[in-house]
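Fold it.
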Amino acid sequence: MNQRLTIYCSTSFILGTLVYILQAYNIVLPKVINNYLNDFLIIPIVLFFSLIFLRWSRNNKSFTISLPIILYLCTMYSVLFEYIFPKYLIRYTSDFIDVLLYFLSGFIFYILQTKNKK
């Protein structure tokens, strides 16, 4: 597995978990971290665990997730978490910056995933 991708996604998972723990204990975080960091981190976390599972299930250690699939996942997160859920669940708010963060982190994942293949 690509070491940079592994470090990036592992760090994303650790930071995301830390933010959730701090929020659960009502520790005040800077607004940018509290409102946007986990939106940036979730796509590489989901894609990384998906990549591990797909490599295992296909028995192909060089399998990569294609850009259209990454864009599809980012689109689905955007529609669900920024359009549908805010309409029905008070916990969610719609924010266009979150959509940009989903796609930015998906693009970074794609770049890191394909970096060693070239």
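The first helix runs from residue 3 to 24.
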